Amino acid sequence: MSQTSSPEKIHDLIGVGFGPSNLALAIALEELAETNGHALDALFIDKQTDYRWHGNTLATQSELQISFLKDLVSLRNPTSPYSFVNYLHQKQRLADFINLGTFYPCRLEYNDYLRWAAEHFATQAVYGEEVLRIEPELREGKVDHLRIVSRDPQGRETQRRARSVVVGSGGTPKIPDAFRAFKNDPRVFHHSQYLSALQQLPCNEGKPMRIAVVGSGQSAAEAFIDLNDSYPSVKVDMILRASALKPADDSPFVNEIFAPEYTDLVFNQPHAEREKLVSEYHNTNYSVVDVDLLERIYGILYRQKVAHQYRHAVLCRRTIEDVVETAAGIELTLRDLATDVRQTHRYDAVILATGYERRSHRELLAPLQQHLKDFEVDRDYRALANPEFGANVYLQGFCEASHGLSDTLLSVLPARAAEIGQSLYQHLGKQASNAPASLRQTCA
């Protein structure tokens, strides 16, 4: 199958990004093709040159934070050949994994699982192209289908057409204002670039460095542990506004908010009540750390006290007042929120474990803004649109406000993929039946 579409060809669906969300959708569509008796013409475009899931953050010690049973498909279809269990079986590691006695595989292995699953859909995927924008194409005053414009690493643009798009482009690194001027400074980088950025630093050759990790969540904690374990020459300060590193609440009753059924509960609430539900359980996912990791960090700091060798520090209640570049390093002026005392610390590098924003869909879909109702979605993740909009836009991972905290996580992938897949078959069928006779051949 050719991966470059002819200008006349109109796909049923183009997916932006081929991360876990759209990969789960590809699997669901394969199942639905059997049920419906025909397959949709789906193509997925990903800006990475090969399949990687958070590839630059896969430090050796980092583990998945949810059970392997919440994979791409098992909660919907535990007999699927795309389950994590079947992946282990195919890789001849099932018995070994059982012997580990854990529900939580390391991220390296989970990345390999996702790559293994993605290989089954190689003919439906285009890698190494970044989607720039999604534009409307009109017929008789109505938006009949969409034009997806992408760019390869050489700067060449490609245009493809589709009746539907599913935007699963993921989060965008959140850079605090104080650090925006350091965008091209290799000494200051977001955690999403962790491994490749570290390779360019002197500590990669065993030279001493003092590194600041800004943030109080899981990524910051994983960076702290990896720097401690893998780079003996590095001294680390973790800098956070909170008064302490806080544990993630993953207790059984609280974890029920990540069940697919809870999505209905959240969606059916008025807007104000939705906000309350998201806020109430904020500590399950944001600015929190797994208890095991917290205990490891505390143990490291305690042993420093015993040995009187103070290599690392966790600086709580600190806000960053100023960032200055000098020949000797990056100087951070920190203010203690409790005492109002200011101190300036010099670092050789700064890692921003400051999370992600979920706004990339707004930029991609800006040309469609007049047709969409402020990017709000229906229960099936289909963007609400004006009557003249005859195409379909679905959002994966941008619906936390309407669908709950699980929307940006792996927990609801199987259910969400099935819901979007069923909606696609329903709406594409309507479009085909409403199309002029000359077009029905391509809509079938």
Automatic annotation (TrEMBL):
GO terms for molecular function: oxidoreductase activity. The keyword Acetylation does not apply. It holds the Pfam family Lys_Orn_oxgnase. One of its GO terms (biological process) is intracellular iron ion homeostasis. It comes from the Bacteria. Keywords: FAD, Flavoprotein, NADP, Oxidoreductase. Its cofactor is FAD. InterPro entries: FAD/NAD-bd_sf, Lys/Orn_oxygenase. Pathway: Siderophore biosynthesis. Belongs to the lysine N(6)-hydroxylase/L-ornithine N(5)-oxygenase family. This is Lysine N(6)-hydroxylase/L-ornithine N(5)-oxygenase family protein. The lineage of its organism: Bacteria, Pseudomonadati, Pseudomonadota, Gammaproteobacteria, Pseudomonadales.
